[in-house]
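look at this fold:
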Amino acid sequence: MKTILSLLLPLCLFIGCTQSQDAKSQKAEPKPKPQKVLVAFFSKTGDNYAVGNIKVGNTHKVAQEIASQTNGTLFEIKPAKPYPDAYKACKEVAEEEFKTNARPKIQGYVEDMEEYDTVYLGFPIWWGDAPMPVYTFLEKYNFNGKHIYPFATHEGSAMGHSESALKKALPKSTVHKGLAIYGHTAQKDAKFVETAVKNWLKD
């Protein structure tokens, strides 16, 4: 019996020591860096198609919901020269910008852009794509390696060709499938927006 105990004791001590070292090594492993989320968006107030004169833009409302559910930082892409308040006049300016591939100046900047791993990028669909100030914004920073999740408000065109245009503009980023919500729904049905965003984030 003593012989067996004398053999087992060193073995138990070895196992206990190994387990203790494993536990220490597990504790020593660094915790994964928490992802920082940016919700950048362009949105228009004033006279809008299908919703009339509004104080908070359609896309702005969706952006707020995404920021709420992701704990993201909101950043509004604002043109240095505001678009005309009237819908028809704004449409004409936007059309000319698309024809000339303009890059309207924007105001403000994102602090520490390099720290954001994930960017939710929102805009209304104008002429089948994101408004030109959005591309000004994209060309202002380095998005290489970042995950881009586009979302848009529209009145029948869904995402238009914005997803393919974004992939072309951001070849070194991962552009994921976007979320499209009708503008009048975004403006008037907060519960629908909440559910749509939740389902999209889940997918």
